[in-house]
Specification:
The protein has 615 residues and is α/β, with parallel strands linked by helices. Helix content is 40%, strand content 13%. A 5-stranded mixed β-sheet has the order 12-11-15-13-14, sandwiched between helices. Bound molecules: flavin mononucleotide (FMN), iron/sulfur cluster and FE2/S2 (inorganic) cluster. The site of FE2/S2 (inorganic) cluster has 13 residues, from helix 6.
Length: 615
Amino acid sequence: MDLHVIGPLASPAERAAVDSVLGPPESGWVGGARRPGIDGHAASGGHAIRAKRSQLLPALHAVQDRIGWISQPALNYISRRLAVPPAEAYGVATFYALYSTRPRPPVVAHVCDDIACRIAGAERICEDLGRAVGPAGEAARDGRVGWIRSPCLGLCDRAPAAMITRAGDPATVTTAAPVDAAGILDRLEGATVTRPPLAARQSGDTGLRLLRRIGAVDPGSLDDYRASGGYTALTRALQMGAEAVIAEVAASKLMGRGGAAFPTGRKWAAVASQPAQPHYLVCNADESEPGTFKDRVLLEGDPFAIVESMTIAAFATGASLGYLYIRGEYPEAEARIRNALESARTAGLLGPDIAGSGFAFDIELRRGAGAYICGEETALFESIEGKRGEPRNKPPFPVEVGLFGKPTVVNNVETLSNIPLILEMGGEAYAQIGTEGSTGPRLFCLSGHVERPGVYEVEFGATLRDLIELAGGVGGGGDIRAILLGGAAGVFVGKDSLDMPLTFEATRAAGATLGSGVIMVFDQTVDLVDTLRRIAQFFRDESCGQCVPCRVGSVRQEELLARLAAGSSVRSRDEELVLLRDIGQAMRDASICGLGQTASSAIESALRQPELVTL
Ligand SMILES: Cc1cc2nc3c(=O)[nH]c(=O)nc-3n(C[C@H](O)[C@H](O)[C@H](O)COP(=O)(O)O)c2cc1C
Ligand code: SF4
Ligand code: FES
């Protein structure tokens, strides 16, 4: 395969950006072009090619970060250096929303207009920016700045939110919330605003387990982490041995917190027993479900706990390399994790001989690039491997054939944060917390019309009413109209569900879901039709497009809602609702992955309850 590309050469700055990730090119490269006949991918065994290809996203990030967009010559240079066909590299670059293959100003505000932010005034902000800066997506003020709309930034507790990307060397990404148009304009013009330190909503509550260090222990200090009990669980794990660790996790009956609620002990045992080598561990920190921000709080506020938990998980399952895949919109969390990884490495808590035990393990940090679908575990593998985030068919399951085709454990951030607790108190004792079918503590993300939005920790079994009261009740003394449970892929419930215990079993019996722990409250002032249309738009935008039911169904669903809202349909309302249900059924039955299977859940649940919304 000849990868030689004729055309303009990448600029020195573009090449420098790529080389900062890939290292200087081997001899034989001339000015960023490959001399015909001298191939940049001479060492092209299958393994070497796969390893190179997995550098594709980091290389694209480097150009996007430093230059502000990815030009065709820059893309060609990356293609040649990584031996990736240019068409495939283009396919990857155009898949991810945080990359731009068209000129983009160096400073861009990504303004969240998703569900929590729009009920906090996001549309007004967008209108103001439109007047002050110009239309979304266009360069303004001599090409220096611009703004675009963004899906949920994981800052719903402080809505409305924005993220500012500033290209250069070094590039910076910052978030701002709550923010108004004037605040965004200031930041576009270079103002830097220090973010207030992370504060726990339940600070002072001595019963906290998962959140006990948030706002109380310096997240930048390994010494402080150790002084607060950190790394005692790893020491215990190394003494107990891998099998005993898995036995404790199984005894705890811990279920995954990423949405699918799979038993963690069973997953770990399955990977540990696989003969194929190596085994990989992936921490899923892609948290992009609208309304979800619990993992961000853990990553920002207790990063060493994630690193320690990953190390224990790797020890138990025989993994020698771990990946922490963090969404690209979490710059502050990424910086904290990066620091934690470096500190742990320096202290011998990551690397070839962890704590003198002979156990070797390290963690690579990978940054997502703005694709909700990459939270789906197999799409995440594809992304790490340098491909478009398109989910794989299952089976085979990741425990057998996962990242790079090898046995892989994938766990959510919150799931992992339970591991030290389980080893400290013992699996049996942990299983006494919560209910029979839902053990342990659980984090919930309260947002929308509550008095004190934020992340709250309770034991499984607390009711929806308990959580809303913990968050101070409905803001401004308003009255609840609807509650979105579980995120955009979840369901709407009404006030009659306030006494529902928030457990896997009770929500399942009620036809609801806990999903990623979202509880978004809407009072009587909210235009729920607008909310439903934004949810439909979200799924249309985020569908990877790989399978027809989801690619077409998510578009048809959005069009149908628009027709109903505008009263422009040639069908009767009842006929439209039947059609909507048919579309939802087709997506549930025939989509490859959970995105398509749940894309209609929230919308259908709302329309089933005329007291919540009428169209
Ligand atoms: C569309 C989609 C998005 C997902 N996003 C996430 C996510 O952001 N974080 C996460 O942990 N799991 C997410 N999941 C679930 C993962 O596929 C997987 O089940 C989970 O990471 C396993 O970890 P757990 O067993 O600890 O929950 C998503 C699933 C789907 C279908
Ligand atoms: S269901 Fe949607 S997101 Fe999932 S693979 Fe199919 S097209 Fe992609
Ligand atoms: S940050 Fe805007 S909806 Fe979540």
